[in-house]
């Protein structure tokens, strides 16, 4: 069923190609290296540079378990053989009462910002979520992350409220907005 959505090849704003495909167990090392790099490229994620301390085997097992879940996906964006984006939909499908909801997350390597990758990835994840019968996508975004907020609002996400002191980065607190997309 996931094969209906991915892999898919798209055009970036600079004319280059973007391949979106589901992560496989063999991608675990590249995904960890990617997350440890992008963690240091902005203060907008839940981890900083080299702070994504997941052992390789655990990452492999996590990818394997996500692959078996119909409503969840770890999605890779590949530009000219290079991992340029990692995004996910994580459904709460083990509990019936919240199985209609999922958490969505996206990041793009800084060198590739502004090429339309973030939008293409989010649009693809929304199509996927709709197709799998999900009803609500939720996320938390740092309140000063204007680039991401503009993207989410343009896709129809609405702000539920402000989460005061959501992040503490080197002793400094940052608020976040909790946002939902009702599919
Ligand atoms: C947020 C992020 C995913 C956007 O990815 P991207 O590939 O640069 O986004 P796109 O090029 O598709 O641009 C999408 C939208 O972002 C907004 N945007 C892009 N550049 C912007 C800028 N300089 N200022 C404000 N908004 C901007 C626009 O709304 C744009 O819409 P458009 O398609 O109509 O031009 C990326 O910047 C990122 O990974 N940041 C670090 C991690 C992060 O913040 N993740 C989100 C955590 S909640």
TrEMBL record:
Highest taxon above the source species: Bacteria
Enzyme class: transferase
The entry's keywords: Acyltransferase, Transferase
Entry EC number(s): 2.3.1.-
Boundaries of every N-acetyltransferase domain copy: 18-183
UniProt-listed Gene3D superfamilies: 3.40.630.30
Alphabetical list of InterPro entries matching this protein: Acyl_CoA_acyltransferase, GNAT_dom
GO-annotated molecular function: acyltransferase activity
Parts of the chain that traverse the membrane: none
CDD domains, per database record: NAT_SF (cd04301)
Protein name: GNAT family N-acetyltransferase
Source organism: Neglectibacter timonensis
């Amino acid at each position: 069923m996931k094969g209906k959505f991915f892999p898919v090849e798209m055009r970036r704003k600079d004319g280059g190609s973007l391949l979106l495909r589901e992560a496989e167990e063999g991608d675990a090392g590249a995904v960890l290296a990617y997350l440890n790099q992008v963690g240091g490229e902005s203060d907008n994620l839940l981890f900083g540079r080299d702070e994504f301390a997941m052992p390789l085997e655990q990452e492999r097992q996590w990818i394997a378990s996500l692959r078996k879940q119909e409503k969840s996906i770890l999605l890779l964006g590949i530009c000219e053989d290079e991992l340029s984006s990692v995004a996910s939909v994580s459904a709460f499908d083990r509990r019936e009462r919240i199985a209609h909801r999922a958490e969505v997350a996206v990041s793009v390597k800084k060198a590739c910002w502004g090429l339309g990758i973030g939008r293409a990835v989010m649009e693809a994840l929304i199509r996927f979520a709709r197709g799998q019968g999900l009803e609500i996508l939720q996320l938390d975004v740092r309140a000063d992350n204007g680039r991401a907020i503009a993207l989410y609002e343009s896709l129809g996400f609405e702000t539920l409220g402000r989460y005061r002191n959501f992040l503490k980065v080197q002793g400094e607190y940052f608020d976040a907005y909790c946002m939902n997309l009702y599919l």
